[in-house]
Backbone:
């Protein structure tokens, strides 16, 4: 054997480097969580980042230096000043689970390649089903992200509700789904991937709190039918990506049952609230959903990617991909729970359940409850702090950990508020101390924060608002002069 191979697989080498790398990561985590790093977003221009990694790739690097450089050249998700996208501060237990499963490298597509991962996956799905109040017949699987989970759910809806044989004969005619104008773009994308085109999406307007106007559903459906489109499903958002608003799932479910439509809930962000008694009422009515998506990597402390797709009637989950790869699934058409690739896009799939499973098994659901409650509380506190200041407004009362707000300009200075808030976000990104994002709602630009780190406190919130006021004052002064 080539000595290179021998050395690469040396257990001694693995033991020593892994110990050293874990020490570096633990130091990083400690400093990061304590807010001791100066920047949550140590911004590097794309070309500079590329040039750096190209040179490292060409010249080579020691593993420990590699670890330090990756840390320093990445977004500091564990920094309490990170309030940007919806991604979580990963629980160290789940990080370690990732190391274990990467080392074992089993899959979880077919049972014989991933005995532990497959069984863990079933436990995770059952736990979520219980939290959501789904029936005993519920079943599902994990898949690579909410986007893919939503597409898979739409394909299942089509298989169950469309009278035509789209899977075998290609897509013809005019199917459509109804979803609020606040839905995640992946729903629109799923519809277009299925070949339904832009008329495949019927946008339902949202109310002043960005929740679907469910009263509009019957009329919109009638219009669609008159236009020759067959509506097969309604998608509720729980919560929406921009503002974290929860649609009235009870009303949507009632409409779907009366009309014989598939009821899907995109709970990628917000289905996590099912883990707390205090927040679960936001999901009232979800127990009637035909399918539900949940992301464990958003509020549930799990490293990316880790998503679940649940079906109220487990049988439905087998109908998505009706053609089977026989070499993988010897044994015919049995609806066995343990050959997951029958029901998922992935063929080779990571042991993705292990990360969230490790949280459930080592800490219990009470840890997830504590996290959901904490983030929820922090976000409400943030709304109070914003309200206490003069020149701010919030888009809508936060329902989970997402909050959109904006600066309303200095008194007496005529200001283009979109330009001002754009400018604020740009300046803060350049400074890199805080990380927040922006979003556009009905033509207005808002600063958008997701409180995703349980170590964030009032200190970081006040600090952020002060920084925003400073930028606004500077640009106000510039306009006056
Ligand atoms: C984040 C999100 C998605 C997409 O999920 P990914 O895991 O990022 O693919 C879909 N829907 C909603 C409501 C989301 O918040």
Residues:
């Amino acid at each position: 054997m080539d000595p290179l191979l021998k050395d690469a697989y040396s257990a001694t080498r693995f033991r020593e480097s892994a110990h050293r790398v874990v020490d570096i990561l633990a130091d990083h985590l400690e400093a990061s969580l304590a807010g001791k790093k100066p920047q949550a977003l140590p911004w590097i221009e794309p070309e500079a980042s590329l040039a750096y990694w190209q040179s490292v790739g060409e010249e080579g690097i020691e593993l420990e230096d590699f670890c330090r450089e990756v840390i320093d050249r990445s977004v500091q998700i564990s920094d309490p000043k990170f309030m940007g996208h919806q991604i979580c501060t990963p629980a160290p237990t789940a990080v370690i689970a990732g190391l274990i499963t990467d080392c074992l490298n089993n899959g979880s597509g077919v049972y014989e390649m991933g005995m532990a991962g497959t069984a863990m996956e079933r436990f995770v799905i059952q736990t979520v089903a219980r939290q959501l109040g789904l029936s005993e017949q519920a079943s599902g699987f994990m898949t690579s992200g909410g986007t893919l989970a939503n597409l898979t759910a739409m394909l299942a809806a089509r298989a169950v509700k469309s009278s035509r044989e789209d899977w075998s004969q290609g897509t013809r005619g005019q199917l459509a789904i109804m979803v609020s104008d606040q839905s995640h773009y992946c729903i629109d994308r799923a519809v277009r991937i299925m070949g339904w085109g832009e008329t495949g999406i019927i946008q339902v307007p949202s109310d002043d709190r960005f929740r679907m106007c469910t009263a509009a559903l019957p009329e919109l459906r009638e219009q669609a039918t008159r236009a020759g489109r067959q509506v097969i499903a309604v998608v509720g958002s729980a919560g929406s990506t921009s503002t974290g608003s929860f649609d009235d799932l009870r009303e949507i479910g009632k409409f779907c049952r009366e009309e014989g439509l598939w009821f899907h809930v995109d709970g990628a962000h917000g289905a996590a609230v099912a883990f707390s008694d205090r927040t679960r009422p936001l999901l009232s009515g979800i127990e009637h959903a035909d399918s539900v998506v949940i992301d464990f990597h958003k509020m549930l402390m799990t490293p990316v990617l880790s998503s679940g797709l649940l079906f109220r009637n487990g049988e439905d989950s087998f109908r998505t991909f009706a053609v089977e790869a026989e070499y993988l699934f010897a044994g015919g058409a049995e609806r066995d729970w343990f050959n997951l690739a029958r029901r998922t896009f992935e063929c080779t799939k990571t042991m993705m359940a292990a990360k969230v499973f490790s949280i459930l098994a080592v800490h219990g659901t009470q840890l997830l409850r504590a996290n959901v409650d904490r983030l929820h509380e922090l976000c409400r506190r943030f709304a109070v702090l914003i309200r206490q200041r003069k020149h701010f407004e919030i888009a809508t009362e936060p329902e989970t950990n997402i909050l959109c707000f904006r600066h309303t300009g200095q008194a007496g200075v005529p200001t283009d508020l979109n330009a001002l808030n754009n400018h604020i976000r740009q300046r803060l990104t350049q400074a890199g101390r805080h990380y927040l994002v922006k979003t556009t709602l009905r033509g207005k630009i808002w600063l958008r924060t997701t409180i995703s780190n349980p170590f964030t406190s009032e200190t970081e919130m006040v600090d952020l608002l002060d920084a925003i006021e400073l930028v606004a004052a500077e640009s106000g002064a510039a306009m006056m002069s």
